[in-house]
Each structure stands twice: as C-alpha cells, then as structure tokens.
Design goal:
With 338 residues, the protein is of the alpha/beta class. It has one domain: TIM Barrel (Alpha-Beta Barrel). Helix content is 38%, strand content 19%. The protein is built from ten helices and ten strands. The strands form two sheets. Strands 1-4-6-7-8-9-10 form a seven-stranded parallel β-sheet. Strand 9, helix 9 and strand 10 form a beta-alpha-beta unit. Helix 1 packs across helix 3, helix 1 runs parallel beside helix 10 and helix 6 runs parallel beside helix 8. It binds zinc ion (ZN). Zinc ion (ZN) binds next to loops.
Amino acid sequence: MLETTIAGSLPRPDWLAEPETLKGGWKLSGQALEDGKRRAAAEWLRHEEEAGIDIVTDGEVFRIHFVHGFLEKIRGIDWQKKTLMGIRDNRYQLEVPTVTGRLSRPAPVHLDEVRFTRAQTQKKLKFTLPGPMTICDTIADAHYGSRPEMAMAFAAILNEEARDLEKAGVDVIQFDEPAFNVFTQDVKDWGIEALHRAIDGLKCTTATHICYGYGIQENLDWKKTLGSEWRQYEEIFPALNASRIDQVSLECAGSKVPLSLLALIPDKQLMVGAIQVTGDHVETPEEVATTIRAAMQYVDTERILPCTNCGMAPIAYDVALAKLKALGAGAALVREAL
Ligand code: ZN
C-alpha cells in the first residue's frame, strides 16, 4: 500500500556534469564518462532504497536531456539543421534538431543502461521515455508535414524500445508527456492514440507523467499566468481515464491543481506528487503525509503512489536526497496510521 516512486530524474553529481542546470554538459569523456554514469546511477539506487522508495529509477543520469537523450540514436534526424522553435505553445524558444527523413531505430537506445540498472537492485524498476507528443513539441519537422503523423512514427519506435526494455526486466515504463496540459485538444484528437501505439503489446505496468514542468524559471513565470486554479487537467483526465495507461501523475504539493479533479480519474493508479521540484524548501515527512492524506479524500488509498511532482534533475544533489528521504518517511507515516 502507498508504494512510493519518483517522476524520474535526479541530479547528476557535480563530478559528472555541470550541476543545478537542466542541460549541463558532461565533465568526463570516453570510458571515464561511461563508468561515471554507471557509478552515479548505482549511488542513486542505493539512496532511493535507503529512503524507502519502492519503485526506483536510474535517476536519468545517463542522459543530458529527457527527450534528446532518446533521439540521439534515432535515424531520420539532422542534428546540424537547427530550427528555432517555440516550445510548449511558445512558453520558451529553443534551437531544436530537425526531422529530415523517415524515422527509424537502428538499435536499442537505453538497453545497456537498463541491463546495468536491473542488475543493481531487487526493487521494482521504472524506466522513463519521452512521450510521442512531447517529442514532437521538442523537435522540428521537415519531413512528415503533420504532427500527428510524426507522433505515430515516434510512437512506433518508442514501442520497439519499450518492448526491449520490458524484456530486460523493467517493471514500469513511463512516458513523459508535459505537453499534455498545453495541447489539451490534441491529447483527445491523437495524443492518447499515440500513447496506445507506444504501449502496444506491453505486459508491464505503463504510466504517463503529465506535469507543469521542472522548477525552472520559465515554468515558474508561466505558472503565475495560470490563475488561482489550474484546471487544464479537467479537459484531459476523462480521456486519460478511458485510456489503456495504468498510472497517471498529478502534482499535488504546492500546486494550484484542485484536488477535486482527482475524481475525474477513478479507474487509474495515481502518482500523487507530494514533493515540489524547486530547491528552496525541503518538505518535512509531516508535510508529505498531509499531501498524501489530502489526495486520499478523493482517491482510494490502494490507487495512490506517493511521488515527486516532476523530475529533480535541475536542483542541488543534497536537496534532492533530502527530499527523497522526506518522501519515503512521509509515506511511512501515513501507512503506519492506517
Ligand atoms: Zn514533469
């Protein structure tokens, strides 16, 4: 009951990469880099286990960015042809690579990482992949001419990858779709369909992480424009509830998402975000417990997985570690009192 997990990413240690920034470059190269990534992942797995996290991840320490880390090994993308693109409906501008030909996956992308990680822990293992809609909102298209069509092409590739990772022993495959609360009509028109293509034939647990983004300045500024209640999920929860995805995330700590919206998603397991992903405050276990109990007003306890609101990659290592411990301890407090 109340199995704990995290959205996915954790900070890469400062000996491995530039800290406290989203896309900080590597500080090592060659074999030293590969060894360093493995050491960092193994250290986070120990931290997660000691903190009482039940469904662990590699902290995404093998990749610089959650979307581009996957795309790097995909054929059909021209990394030299940069296109300036407004991301998440123009919340920020980014120079992105361009799809210039038919997309394909010549070889598995994350399989070696997963084999390593799987061998490091007996806990349930989650692996995160970018969702098709979010990929399409992070790369320019000069080939398909239609976002839904390009999304289905990525979804087919993600499905190949997910099947390989499932075979390697991953228990939960999560698709990150922060674009879902921006393009709410597209979610209903083709976003869920693309996710279904991505999970086709999987027997493991499937999840989608939707969110209001990392605790970076662009997102904090954007959140200020969303008013006193964030109701974007109201439009997409019925569609997600009708989908074949097993788990859906919702940030509950310090967000303005009305918890009553949880009632719109009665048939899914819910990753209840009980940890904020800004670095200025470490939650106490009591605060975490309060957030979990607030969600329990709307969701049966059996369906709740206490979680972080989003990835913690951009915050300080020690702060993220303290937050992990608070998450584990807070969930334990609620469990003990049941
Ligand atoms: Zn997120």
